[in-house]
Design brief:
Layout lengths: L2 E7 L13 H18 L4 H8 L1 E12 L8 E11 L3 E10 L4 E14 L10 H7 L1
Antiparallel strand pairs: 1-3, 2-5, 3-4, 4-5
Amino acid sequence: MSSFDWPVRVYYEDTDAGGVVYHTSYIRFMERARTEWLRSRGYSQARLIEEMGVLFSVVTLDIHYRLPARLDDLLLVRSEVQAGGGASVHFEQVIHRGEERQELLRGKVVVACLDAKTFRPRRLPPTMREEFT
């Protein structure tokens, strides 16, 4: 399946006192990249809730931190759909630094499709299922 790249600059708010990216900041970077991946396919989070009655929630997150990012680094978050089920989408996400694409982190994320009113699992809408699986 095709991959989607999203650039992220490391700001002061993303780091600890030593200027090293705090571990939870990477999770925010990954979330933003998945959101922009959806948007690039014509699905905003608000539209999914309002028009399709669905939202997505992370159910599994497995991260392997390899090297630290630092203040002012330019990162690239790559998101790739690995598989999909009736009510879930599996991603592999990799965060690289700079033009040399030094790998800093590799993660696997499973998101579940939920009914926006009940928060119970729900099958992906047919158009999304065809596109994502």
